[in-house]
């Protein structure tokens, strides 16, 4: 009898310690599971470093929040686990305001070129390095080579993002003042209503998701476990 009681407690204990059950911030929010985890809800081994999500404190309509290096806070609209894409937007509908602080090379995400996407039906982005200028008026000929940053323009200044692939991008034109550089972001980041997609290029688990299997980290070694069901702890070598 006591053996059964001991077994019961052992099973309960291990179940409680391994609680990586998928969750979400609100009814309409994206499911949060490996390689993501919900901070303060899932233990660290439920996700990879850099994949921590949190919920906004708004309890009536909680949104899902991702922090990107260095200090960029974005809302998560959708997570496509099969294609390894995360759809983000700026909480104030003005990404350019935050781009100055964005360093994607310190994050586990990339802005995907079309050729980086696993499915040709997904639309990729034209990724580039940009200089952002503040000008008293529209410099001649800049329509062709620049994106007007609507949400930063106004009050007598026009803000433009110029791709570094243009030779003239550093030219001090029309009393324009260079504000900052932005590295490796897609053009859409400068549009007002940007829904940006980022990809996590972790090779890990990709084949498994395509087969309808799931992954998580083992608690001890932080090695990868492939599990057939989210509740299952059966270890499988590969997909
Ligand atoms: C909470 O969400 C509701 C619905 O989206 C919104 O009207 C309200 O302003 C939000 N409250 C805060 C404190 O953000
Ligand atoms: C971005 O992050 C990478 C990796 O942490 C670092 O090497 C690089 O200097 C950073 N770039 C900028 C512009 O801060
Ligand atoms: C791409 O879209 C077409 C038409 O909607 C569909 O038939 C095809 O299966 C899709 N390809 C993939 C890889 O999803
Ligand atoms: C942007 O700049 C980085 C660092 O200088 C470079 O490695 C990268 O290739 C550039 N990207 C493009 C699209 O030019």
Number of helical segments with 4 or more residues: 4
Judged by helices, strands and strand pairing, the structural class is alpha+beta
Helix content: 10-25%
Main sheet characteristics:
6 strands, mixed
The strand order across the widest sheet is 1-2-3-4-5-10
Describe the global form: elongated
**Radius of gyration of CA atoms, rounded to a whole number:** 22 Å
* Terminal CA distance: 41 Å
Describe this structure in words.
This protein has 239 residues and is α+β, with helices and mostly antiparallel strands. 12% of the residues lie in helices and 27% in strands. The chain contains 4 helices and 12 strands; from the N terminus they run H-E-E-E-E-E-H-E-H-E-E-E-E-H-E-E. It has helices spanning 2-17, 96-99, 142-145, 206-210; strands at residues 37-38, 52-55, 64-68, 72-80, 85-89, 127-135, 146-148, 158-163, 177-186, 196-199, 214-217, 224-227. The strands form 3 sheets. It has a 6-stranded mixed β-sheet with strand order 1-2-3-4-5-10, with no helix packed on it. Strands 7-8-6-9 form a 4-stranded antiparallel β-sheet. Strands 11-12 form a two-stranded antiparallel sheet. The longest helix is centred in the N-terminal third of the chain and has 16 residues, at 2-17. Mean pLDDT is 78; it is low at 1-17 and 227-237. Bound molecules: 2-acetamido-2-deoxy-beta-D-glucopyranose (NAG) (4 copies). Residues 103, 105-106 line the site of one 2-acetamido-2-deoxy-beta-D-glucopyranose (NAG). Pathway: Protein modification; protein ubiquitination. Its EC number is 2.3.2.27. It is found in: Membrane.
